[in-house]
Structure formats: structure tokens, C-alpha cells
Amino acid sequence: MSGGRGPLVEVEGLTKSFHLRTGFGFRRARRELVAVAGVSFTLERGETLGLVGESGCGKTTTGRLLLRLLEPTAGVIRFAGREIQALPERELRPLRRRMQIIFQDPYGSLDPRMTVEEIVAEPLVVHGVGDRAARARRVRELLDRVGIPASWADRHPHEFSGGQRQRIGIARALALDPEFLVCDEPVSALDVSIRAQVVNLLVDLGRELGLTYLFISHDLAVVRHICDRVAVMYLGRIVELAPKASLYREPLHPYTRALLSAIPVPRPGRKRARIVLAGDVPSPLDPPAGCRFHTRCPQAMEVCRRVEPELVEVRPGHRVACHLHPAPPSNGARA
Ligand code: SF4
């Protein structure tokens, strides 16, 4: 359980660029790909923030930057009030115990040669926690907690289904008793029939252990089930950030509206008009000027091609980056 005051995670102007070599011969050039372009948000203790968007929008890179699995190019990352973006590994190490990741692919993220006991105990071994007997007890406790019989601890990953493997991945992520978990598309590789079970397990664990989650997903239906707030990313930027109820009831950004229109409506007889976006996501090597979404936006105006909109608060806690929704005048201006 986390103590202390203030947000657990704070991000300001977080940026990550990669340098790529493109072309051949004389045309060979070094180009900059800005995967994450100045994003800012906070995560309150015990909160679940959904980070959604199409593939390549920068959400996975953002998750890895928060854990310093990737080095940021610019910006500030604060964990429990401490700036960590430039901490040397020696000082980062004790903090790493408190922040963990659950990967998307339960098939690729577990070493097939190791037993489940070895996999779940690995973080304890790496951080020198407990002796062999204490680690074995902890592994059994964790397996029990995620719904895997402790008597199966000597089996190998190939003996488990996809859902069971993801449960093992969750047990491993919890081994060091973390406060913050980045869940990177944790159910998208699973059969639809077992996704809800794994999401419900994460919800239960979050409540019982007071966990703070960054839940990365392209699936707004899954995010609705687990998150308190949602941030929508497009081409490396956050374009809308709002409490869940506000975002799903009245999405403001045309991109969010299009994403939401693709979710099937559960009630028979009710239909939601599907907004089909024109074209593909532009290359992050050459993002459009002005609003990055203008090449696909059904409501684009002339100003959108020239001026990049800022992320501004238009309702309490509801921020959007779109010229259709300018910031309301402050109380002082109204008076
Ligand atoms: Fe569409 Fe313009 Fe808003 Fe961008 S700023 S989302 S192009 S209306």
C-alpha cells in the first residue's frame, strides 16, 4: 500500500525521439522519429488511468518511459515526489521494486525453460529478497492470489493456457509488492472469452492492494471497465484526458468520438452511428503541421492546418486539444 501525499506519478513534457537511418546510397539520411511529443499527466495513488489510441501512437513507449525501461529525451517524471528521469541506476534500483510491468504477450514474456516457481521468484532473487524457503512460500501465496493452484508451481509455461500464463505474469509483477503497475495491453492477446476474467482479477487486485495502474490499451470497451480516467493519444500527443464518465458520456475530440463509435452497443435495438476515419495514421517521421489529426478529421477547419491546439481544461478535469473546444474564459475574465 502506498502512503504519502500527492500524486504517485507525475509526468511533464515527456518526450522520446529515436534517430533512424532512412534511404540508400546518396539518399541515406538520419531522421528523427518523435514517438512521444511532450505529454503531461498525473496518476493519483490508487487510481487507474487508461492510455488509449491506435497502434504506433506512442502509448507503449510512454509506459516504458515511466518505468525508465527507455530513457526519455526530455521532460520530467516524478515517482512518489522524486524526479527519476535522470537518476543513475544505483539510485533507481530501490524504486524499481515499487514499479512493475505486465506485458501484452503471455506467450513471449515467460521463459519456456523455467518453471512457474522460478519465473515468479525471479524478481525476488534479482533483488535479493528472502531465502529459498521464504521465496517458495511467497510464490505459492502469489499463485494462490492470482488463481493458479500452488501445486502447479513446478510446471512449465507451455502447460498453461493464455489466460493462465497472463495470471502467472501478474503474479511475477506482484512479487516485490509494487505500488505502480504499467499494464501494457494485458488482455489483447487473449481469447475474448477470458479477457473479462483477467481484467476482473486486475480490478480486484487493484482494490485489495491499493495499486495504481497505467492501463495501456487500444480497446476502449476494456478501458471503460477498469479505468477511473482515460487519456487518448494520437501521434505522440494526448488529445483528450478526462474522467471516465465524462469521456464516455460526452467525448469532445473528434478522434475520441470516432474511436468510441466503433464500440458495439450492448443494448439490442440501439445503434451508434459509426464514424469511419479517412486514411491511415500519418507517419510519426513526418507528422502533419497544425493539429496532427487534421488529415483525418471530419471537422477540420482552416486554422487546424496551421495551429496546433493546446490541451486545455474545458470542464472540471476534462481536457481536450481541439480548436472546436477553446478553453472557457476564466472567472476573472467573465466578471
Ligand atoms: Fe479536428 Fe481541427 Fe479539432 Fe484537430 S483541431 S481535431 S482538425 S477540429
Would you give an account of this structure?
The protein has ten helices and twelve strands. The protein is α/β, with parallel strands linked by helices and 335 residues long. It has an eight-stranded mixed β-sheet, with helices on both faces. It has a four-stranded antiparallel β-sheet with strand order 2-1-4-5. α4 (132-145) crosses α5. The longest helix is centred in the middle third of the chain and has 18 residues, at 192-209. It is globular. The N and C termini lie far apart (45 Å). Bound molecules: iron/sulfur cluster. Iron/sulfur cluster binds at residues 253-254, 291, 293-294, 297, 299-301, 304, 309, 322-324. Iron/sulfur cluster binds next to loops.
Describe the protein's topology.
Layout: E1 9-22, E2 29-43, E3 48-52, H1 59-66, E4 74-79, E5 82-83, H2 89-96, E6 99-102, H3 116-126, H4 132-145, H5 162-174, E7 180-184, H6 192-209, E8 212-217, H7 220-226, E9 229-234, E10 237-243, H8 244-249, H9 254-261, E11 312-315, E12 318-320, H10 331-334
The chain binds iron/sulfur cluster.
Give the N-terminus to C-terminus distance in angstroms. 45 Å
What is the global morphology? Answer: globular
Mean pLDDT: 91
- Report the bound ligands by name, code or SMILES: iron/sulfur cluster
Strand composition percent: 15-25%
Number of strands: 12
> Which value, in Å, is the CA radius of gyration?
21 Å
Discrete helix count: 10
What fraction, in percent, of the residue positions are helical? 25-40%
The topology string of helices and strands comes to: EEEHEEHEHHHEHEHEEHHEEH
Low-confidence stretches: 331-335
Indicate the structural class: alpha/beta
For the biggest sheet, the summary is: 8 strands, mixed
**Order of adjacent strands in the largest pleated sheet:** 6-7-8-3-9-10-12-11
